[in-house]
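Table 4 source record.
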Amino acid sequence: MLNTFQQAPHPMLPKASHDEAARQEFTKSFKGFIQSTLLPGLTPVYTARVSKAFERETGRTPQGRRDIRQGMVKDLYFQHYAAMNRVAQELLWESVVVSVDRQLPELNARAQELAASTQAKLDIPEGFSPPRYVTALDIHCMPGGYCSEIEPQDISVGALYDRGVYLYSMGYTGPDNDDMGRSVCNYLKRHMPDFKPRRILDMGCTVGHSTLPYKELFPDAEVWGIDVGGPVVRYAHARAAGMGLEVNFAQMNAEETSFPDDHFDLVVSHILLHETSGKAMPRVFAEAHRVLAPGGLMIHADLPPFDLMDPFTQFILDNETWYNNEPFWGAMREMDQFALAEKAGFDRAAARFDTAPMAVMEFAGGHDGYSQSAAEGVAEREFTAGEFAPGGGWEVFIARKAEEKALAA
């Protein structure tokens, strides 16, 4: 699948030269090699060598991911694995930066042309200050992060993210980088066929990869994507226009938006929560509750919480915290999302975790993405350390806002 799925072109996607494309393909293949060849070796290294050494040194067996890490970081094999992972991450961004810088004036001009060609709204408020937990470091080592602007109306980090995240995912997010949104849309179509939201909000949309499938599934809905990064929001607006979809975008903080109360029927996010701080995440839940209409749904798609997986898988996933500039990755997976939802105003009995099978995996398996049997075949798999989406699906936290009658009672 890695050799057959290629990123689909669109008017805003940077066009790589022959040499640039070769370098980018190398970085994708290098990451694939690490995941398919080096990572599987960690399990026998741990069971045959590291766990025994830990027990000799401490007089007890490793009890959790922190104990496992304490032992593994001393092992030469793990050190090589971790170093290669970091090198691969930095190489992929470098391979794309060259391509973006070479054609940045052209991309900026095209973004403004496309923005002028659509009726969809773009709101970039003056004086907006992104939260420090986003600007203090380059998240997942992406140069400039989400918010850096080289010049007025800049979209450079949006272009960098669009191509770079495809390489990072090794093609597993699909030709349009939209697998998370498409997977959740498939889940809604499969499990809630009568659900027809009038207004949809995607929190932390970056360049709108996962936002657009909602407009495809619900063409009559008013769809908004928001993000704290101005450049990624501008890029998202132009990208959507270039792909023929009218979706509104705004630079806003998901902790405190400017939308009115009870405005949306569906509020979603895709891998947003692990990039927020421990203080921000409860505010995101509270804001989702505020802007949802009675009976509306909140769905956050991410990787599974740690209590749903074994300690060794936890350890593997937590390497993102240590080596890929994801400081809240591990902490987020330990937070009680049910308690957060309840505190925000949701009924705990109306909240649940579920699995949305990866749309790209269902497609590769010859399924239409909507059949119940195909979904169950993927969702019932055990989580596997090192998979892009453990278990072949995205973990979704779903909460429904109480109906007006229940509120009145």
